[in-house]
Amino acid sequence: MMSPVTDNRPVLSTPISLGGSLQNHGVRMTRQRRLLFELIDVSREHLNAEALYLLAKQRDPKINRVTVYRTLKLLKQEGLVDELDLLHQQGDQHFYESRLKREHAHVVCLRCGRVEEFFGEPLKRLKQQIEAHFGFQIVVARTEVGGYCANCQLRVARQTEELRDKALVKK
């Protein structure tokens, strides 16, 4: 199962060049590599390798799983995609997203697995506070916050109320 994300996916003001980054390291930009990166970049969901493979197969029936895994490894090495575990809500499953958008936090519901992306000034301020406090230059920041979404909180409250009502009836 893929994790849905919010629709507002801002892009960095200075996007990383896919072809340029790979070519700088002597790696050829193939049609299939470009396809896989574009699918990750435009997806409104966090894709795992299998989901990415299935999407790519629709556009290029000749693509195979080995190409997907090798390309993911290459794109990670080049800093073009991030590999996420999203608080292990789906076991050891990993998800991928483009680094072309600005920094954000992943807000994960620990009950239903829904993933929201939070973009905002508080994240920027937190980084600045950490840098100032520790004299540390932050190059990469990944923030994941786990909790319960409004729907799950409501569902749990209803279930608790129903259990309480049943217990009272039995007395």
Notes on the structure:
The chain has helices spanning 18-24, 31-42, 49-59, 65-77, 121-134, 150-170; strands at 3-4, 45-46, 81-84, 95-98, 105-109, 115-118, 143-147. By secondary structure, it is of the alpha+beta class. The protein has a single domain (3-170), classed as Winged helix-like DNA-binding domain superfamily/Winged helix DNA-binding domain (Arc Repressor Mutant, subunit A). The strands form three sheets. Strands 6-5-7 form a three-stranded mixed beta sheet, with no helix packed on it. Residues 1-16 have low confidence and may be disordered.
Beta strands, count = 7
Known CATH architecture: Orthogonal Bundle
Helix-strand topology string? EHHEHHEEEEHEH
**Basic shape:** flat
Question: What is this entry, summarized?
Answer:
This protein is an alpha+beta fold and 171 residues long. 46% of the residues lie in helices and 15% in strands. It contains six helices and seven strands, in the order βααβααββββαβα.
